[in-house]
Amino acid sequence: MTVRVAMWSGPRNLSTAMMRSFGSRADTFVSDEPFYGAYLKDAGAEHPMRETVIAAMDCDWRSVMEMLRSDPPDGSPIWYQKHMWHHMTGPIGYEDFAGFTHAFLIRQPERMIVSYLRKREAAAFENFGMDRQAEFFEREAERLGHAPPVIDANDVLADPKAVLSKLCHRLGIPWDMAMLSWLPGRRQTDGPWAPHWYGAVEASTGFGPPESEHVELSDEAQRVAERCRPYYEQLAAHRITP
Questions:
Q1: What is the DSSP letter of 9?
Q2: Measured over all CA atoms, what is the biggest interatomic distance in the chain, rounded to whole angstroms?
Q3: E-only strand ranges, 33-187
Q4: Is 79 helix (H, G, I), strand (E, B) or coil?
Q5: Between the CA of residue 46 and those of 13, 69, 140, 221, what are the distances in Å?
Q6: Which 8-state DSSP code applies to residue 229?
Q7: In whole angstroms, what is the distance from residue 210 CA to residue 43 CA?
Q8: Cα Rg, the chain, nearest whole Å
Q9: Half-sphere exposure for 177 (CA within 13 Å, toward CB)
Q10: What is the pLDDT of residue 122?
Q11: Nearest to 114 by CA among 235, 13, 231
Q12: Residue 20 in contact with residue 186, Cβ under 8 Å?
């Protein structure tokens, strides 16, 4: 039986490094934002490499969902799927993920936005999908009768072994030390947007040091951070700590 781990986050939440970590396991296949093409095609969002992404991906919502519910392409017993809720503007919703094991990756809003602004000129609340993520979290918590796993990017950086081993326990999969390091470079499983977004992770061989305390934002970006904060804190109250 396949364990399908759906990891939900916003952009610039350490999500690609987390995909590298799970992809280092011998028992795991990874998928990189499989609904991104459908989102770009339907929403008309002007994102970097938009046309390249649309041309390279299956852009039919239901077809993508059917694929994610099928057997992993390489037959691995674990299928790690990197998802972003701000992409989920189409007909696929919570009920379509029945049988998946859900987890949530978060990051302090200021740090998330600073990282995002290194790649784009402006940041809006809608770019991060945190309200949708919080709504999905609550529905999953109600179904389970307890909070699903939540990890914070900076906690992972502070002590990746402690946080990720606890995460694996919560996901019902064995801990694997291979998750702490990986070879540099691009992967065949990386999305076609990798040339724009993945420079740092392609050069990495593991998780970096914890983030520094001081973050500076413009007034406009700070207002976005403040709007994101209640949703971040809602999930952070349940996060796995080192």
A1: E
A2: 50
A3: 78-84, 101-106, 150-152
A4: strand
A5: 21, 29, 31, 19
A6: H
A7: 35
A8: 17
A9: 0
A10: 85
A11: 13
A12: no
Give the neighbor-by-neighbor strand order of the sheet with 150-152.
28-32, 78-84, 3-9, 101-106, 150-152
CB 137 within 8 A of CB 148: yes
> Where do we find the tokens 């914070």?
152
Helices (H), 103-206: 109-117, 130-144, 153-158, 160-171, 194-197, 199-203
> Angle formed by the axes of helices 109-117 and 219-236, to 10°?
130
Number of neighbouring beta carbons within 10 Å of residue 97: 20
Task: State residue 134 phi and psi, 5-degree precision.
Answer: -65, -40
52-55: Cβ within 8 A, 24+ apart: 52/192, 52/193, 53/191, 53/192, 53/193
Distance (Å, rounded) from C-alpha 98 to C-alpha 101?
Answer: 9
First vs last Cα of the chain: how many Å apart?
Answer: 30
pLDDT for residue 113: 94
> In this structure, are residues 16 and 90 in contact, taking their beta carbons and an 8 Å threshold?
no
Residue 56 token pair: 């390279």
**β-sheet bridge partners, residue 29:** 79
pLDDT < 50 stretches in the chain: none
Q: What are phi and psi of 181, to 5 degrees?
A: -155, 160
| Structure token digits, residue 22 | 């799970």
Cβ(56)–Cβ(32) under 8 Å? no
DSSP H helical ranges for 24-90: 36-43, 50-56, 61-69
The whole-number pLDDT of residue 119 equals: 83
Residue type, 127: N
Compute φ and ψ for 150, nearest 5 degrees: -130, 135
